[in-house]
Design brief:
Order of helices and strands: HHHHHHH
Low-confidence stretches: 149-155
Oligomer: single chain
Mean pLDDT: 77
Radius of gyration: 24 Å
Helix content: 40-55%
Strand content: under 5%
Structural class: mainly alpha
């Protein structure tokens, strides 16, 4: 009786390091503020609108150059889906429809959620934020400037070694 009656639970992914990141992001609940703040007006059939946004996010992390690659990058990798806490993945056309339904209010909600994520998980959030604004003259005439502080770099064609010659 050396045979096991349980089926194996190991799954493999070509994106193992990304899967490890997915487990960590899920444990830290990094995507939680987005789910609590962003409300996209779309009915839920199989996946919620936030799940579809999450699928787009995961596929971009997996190296997709656009939403059209969700089916090949994420749907084809169930281990990666499970690492990010997803049991399945939405079809790329459904994800695109969800993003098309987003309004300016949804963008504002996403900005608030990302700000919350930054404040919760970033070490940089404890530093004071200083905004520096430079006032420009309010005229219709073009402003001429003489910027001698930044020299123009002139490069020769082809590859060269060493420093590049910088001429003012």
């Amino acid at each position: 009786m050396n045979e096991s009656t349980t089926k194996p639970t190991k799954q493999f992914s070509g994106c193992a390091s990304l899967a490890a990141l997915g487990v960590q992001l899920r444990q830290l609940d990094v995507f939680g503020p987005i789910g609590k703040t962003v409300r996209i007006a779309q009915k839920t059939v199989k996946h919620t609108p936030i799940d579809k946004v999450y699928d787009a996010f995961i596929s971009l992390l997996a190296g997709a150059h656009g939403l059209v690659e969700i089916n090949t990058r994420l749907r084809a990798d169930p281990a990666l889906q499970k690492a990010f806490g997803r049991s399945s993945c939405a079809e790329q056309s459904v994800v695109q429809e969800t993003l098309d339904h987003c309004s300016a209010e949804n963008v504002s909600q996403m900005e608030q959620a990302l700000d919350t994520i930054y404040r919760q998980h970033s070490q940089g959030s404890s530093w004071p934020i200083v905004i520096v604004a430079k006032a420009e003259p309010a005229t219709s005439q073009p402003v001429e400037r003489e910027d001698h502080a930044v020299p123009q770099a002139r490069f020769h064609s082809g590859w060269t070694r060493g420093r590049k010659n910088i001429h003012p």
